[in-house]
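PROTEIN DESIGN WORKSHEET
SECTION A - STRUCTURE
LENGTH: 176
TOKENS:
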């Protein structure tokens, strides 16, 4: 928030001292509205949810297997030979390794999705830039972040940005 205030103060100060410069034009865009209408974004968020759900199901299954192994070992008690106890301990350690591998796999999948999301955000920035240039707008603020004041008559370019990003996403989807 402090950064936003400092940037705005700097912008207004810069505008005051530049006599030959054109007065800045501001507009705002709702990133949530735009992104929620883009198929690549929907696909990324759906894939992220699927990764978390699948990992949870797998994790619970592995943990149940570990609990069963431990309960079986406890039930057999003293009747387990040292070798059998050693085997049970090895099986439990394998399941712990499976949990670790599952976590690593999930993190890798999420990292790939994050890279795709970053690509989409670059496309979003490009779409904002295209619309801003067409409209002669100097600065575009995101209306979903904390804005201290926005004139009710301020230019809202959400629909124009959405149209531009839909076009870009159709031409080159980030995730199909």
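SECTION B - SEQUENCE
RESIDUE ASSIGNMENT:
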């Amino acid at each position: 928030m402090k950064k936003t205030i400092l940037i705005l103060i700097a912008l207004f100060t810069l505008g005051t001292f530049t006599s030959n410069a054109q007065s800045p034009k501001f507009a705002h865009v709702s990133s949530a509205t735009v992104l929620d209408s883009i198929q690549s974004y929907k696909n990324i968020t759906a894939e992220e949810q699927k990764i978390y759900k699948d990992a949870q199901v797998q994790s619970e299954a592995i943990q149940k297997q570990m609990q069963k192994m431990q309960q079986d070992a406890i039930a057999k008690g003293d009747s387990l030979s040292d070798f059998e106890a050693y085997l049970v301990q090895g099986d439990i350690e394998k399941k712990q390794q499976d949990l670790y591998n599952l976590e690593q796999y999930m993190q890798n999948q999420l990292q790939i999705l994050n890279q795709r999301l970053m690509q989409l955000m670059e496309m979003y920035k490009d779409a904002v830039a295209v619309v801003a240039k067409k409209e002669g707008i100097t600065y575009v603020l995101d209306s979903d972040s904390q804005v201290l004041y926005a004139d009710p008559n301020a230019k809202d370019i959400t629909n124009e940005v959405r149209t531009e990003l839909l076009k870009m996403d159709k031409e080159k989807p980030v995730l199909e």
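SECTION C - NOTES
The chain has a mean pLDDT of 84.
Residues 82-135 form the longest helix (54 residues).
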